[in-house]
Amino acid sequence: MSRLRLEYANCLADRVGTHGISASTLEAASRQMSDLTQQLNSSKGTGMECWRLLPFDPLRTAHLEGINSLTKKHRDSTDNLVVLGIGGSALGNIALHNALCPLTYNLMPRPERDGPRIFVLDNVDPQVITRTFAEIKRTDPSFERTLVNVISKSGETAETAALFMIARGILSEAMGDKHSDHIVAITDPKQGTMRSICDEAGYETLPVPEGVGGRFSVLSPVGLFSSAMCGIDIKALLDGAAEMDERCCEPDIRQNPAAMLAFLLIELTRQGKINHVLMPYCNALYSLADWYRQLWAESLGKRVDLQGNEVFAGATPIKALGTTDQHSQIQLYREGPNDKVIGFVEVETWDDDVCIPAGLGVENLSYLEGVNLSDLLKAEKKATEYALVESQRPNFTITLPRLDAHCVGQFIQMWEIATAYAGLMLNINPYDQPAVETGKVATFGLMGRAGYEGWKDKVEKTLDTSSHMIE
Amino acid sequence: MSRLRLEYANCLADRVGTHGISASTLEAASRQMSDLTQQLNSSKGTGMECWRLLPFDPLRTAHLEGINSLTKKHRDSTDNLVVLGIGGSALGNIALHNALCPLTYNLMPRPERDGPRIFVLDNVDPQVITRTFAEIKRTDPSFERTLVNVISKSGETAETAALFMIARGILSEAMGDKHSDHIVAITDPKQGTMRSICDEAGYETLPVPEGVGGRFSVLSPVGLFSSAMCGIDIKALLDGAAEMDERCCEPDIRQNPAAMLAFLLIELTRQGKINHVLMPYCNALYSLADWYRQLWAESLGKRVDLQGNEVFAGATPIKALGTTDQHSQIQLYREGPNDKVIGFVEVETWDDDVCIPAGLGVENLSYLEGVNLSDLLKAEKKATEYALVESQRPNFTITLPRLDAHCVGQFIQMWEIATAYAGLMLNINPYDQPAVETGKVATFGLMGRAGYEGWKDKVEKTLDTSSHMIE
Fold first, then answer.
1. Tens of pLDDT, residues B127-162
2. Is the ipTM of this complex over 0.90?
3. Chain A closest CA to B109's CA: distance in Å?
4. Comparing C-alpha atoms, which of A253, A338, A312 is closest to residue A25?
5. What domains are defined for chain B?
6. Buried-exposed string B286-295: b where 16+ CB fall within 10 A, e elsewhere
7. How far is CA A426 from CA A19, A176, A262, A300, A420, in A?
8. Active site residue A440
């Protein structure tokens, strides 16, 4: 059993001076964090904290059975899987796919490729939609080997609804009523617009479980169905998450990765480190940083009323990629404003590796000969860590022993639990997103949706820009 | 001729209150910016400002001729183009490819795909390298229809050197000395390690021109050769850049997009908006935000000595994607710390579009029926702009009349010139990157390169973490 590691020495004052956390602050926090752990242990599985139960029975078995039954039915007969969703209904799917399927997945032929090609459409970009369906049609003109997986709890999210209407239109034009065999919806099991659509048309469905918000849903059917279709070991994902969950019930912060992570980041935020960079040294894990961006930003970026004072809480999550961004962002991270914590993510043992061959015969480069690429990658990361410490920039490292589903499951559960801790520490509800509403209703108004007539004028009056434009 | 537009009303105080720029500040800046324009007009083409000459003769013609001759030779006989580079030797290539080639480019067959498949390798990730070469070998076992384009001015960058040694090893194992016909290097025309390698092995080369730094090199052979191989209209790119350059010689800030952009961003930085988000509403333009990230971060993130006081200048560039990130980041952008400027990028006329079909028969969604996807995208952007203004968050919009090479060329030249202005405003040299050095030498030390022996101990002593790890 390989366990995720969290190294945090570079966040402490004896490493990075006043930009780090003092020993006494860490000491004092131990008690508080232990109290929060008890609080989370007892609220676990209640209200909006049902996501913590996803890796455990009975949800685990129920979801696996539902997913396996649909996967068995569709996997061999599907060449193109089109996932429609946005935000929490897409970022996890993309992250799991990129982390655990080969980079060249969509280019590979079957059976080397362990499932259909996958296209996750999470934007209403006209070119993306046109090109994607043109490519699918090229390989499957009748769309008979194409499956659409629409993910929407309510069915009312404008982007997903629009994409669904387009995809459904294409399928029904191609095959009439038979199109209903080519749609699997993941939606509310009881109510809502998408529920009614599915019931009426007879689409197969899997549930978005109750008490599981979008950005905490990756380990539910939302993220697991498309993963299973592409051959990812979803049981191992849940196993990893369950093991991490148990570690995060531990009252001692020095044994509890999520509690420590939350403490480091929120305490450093208080000390002015308001930008939180997540920087995997692994291309496959880069999309997990996008998943993290939503989790951290939408959960904690909140206006709070502190005794009559308006406070804008939260920190800005930023994604970066090592070594690539050493040649793009590290100049700034070392010599720009000291307002960041850098979180490295590292893979310890690589299954694929390449040895840099000798034979070029150039003296200056001979130090690279016979070296494994993974060792160069690790040296680069260590050197960057050192350079940041030298500039008193706090940083930490999450190490995945391997790049596999078991470790990725741990990573996900750890960050979700860390977010719950952070919510408690900031006195914020991490499960709502009130500020997203205005944009939604303003869109409805601009699109002429009944009931939102007033918004169009309001928006256009506010944004009349003619006099401040260079053209 | 379609010209880029810059709308900036939402950065002004009468839109976003004290979080914006006052009319008097803008008024007062006009004179200063006009002086800087004169300064840049006269330094243009000297020292490290030679990049401004790239769109003009004689460089233009010289580069186009060199590129066309190699493209003519290799394009039809190449099925896989492997680009090796990092930072400024990759981000521009990726950005141009994603902006101007179809999203599904690598999946399409020829002749629909107007050139070889492209794989830009800008990281020493062992899995990426293994998988990419395995995929190439699958389709081209002898590597006879594969071309490697290595981009490195010096040849000493560890990552690019390692990748080059691996790629060269694979090619020479497959075809011996004949491998030299399958390598095109873009490097210093006169000196350096890569120059010597090319001279000795007889590799074809194109120049990294003198006085053009990596992050300002995309419109040189660095970015243009791989683009031309993939069928991008590189003349139109240069035309667009040339036209923008002329607009940016205009002393009146109200007519000069780069001067206005630099003024807005640096002035707002002074007012505490230290995070600069670039958020295209267009998937194809998302990688240009990565290119911008390097330009802005590495050029301006500098430690400066202000009369004995150490100041950490610069702002943190952040990339986001509309509408996708409305469901991930907008909660934070509206209710989190008011420390950002949001730069939208919008496409005005879409060549590909999709009409959302009727037929679903759901009342709640009927407002979407018959709507073009591009109009939904625009409404979403406008609604988000409105929501940000309502929360007093400054933002601006860059509009590309079309998604084509001419407009992308304008966009690139505008941001590069804005960076030059910002350097002058901050009293910073935007053309160096001193803080990257420590990581480089520490890597050499850890890798055992001769002459860097002391660094290994130094790094390992500093980073001994055993006591601050959760495992």
1. 999 999 999 999 999 999 999 999 999 999 999 999
2. yes
3. 10
4. A253
5. 5-43+237-426 (3.40.50.10490), 50-234 (3.40.50.10490), 437-471 (no CATH)
6. bbbbbbbbbb
7. 20, 53, 10, 8, 10
8. yes
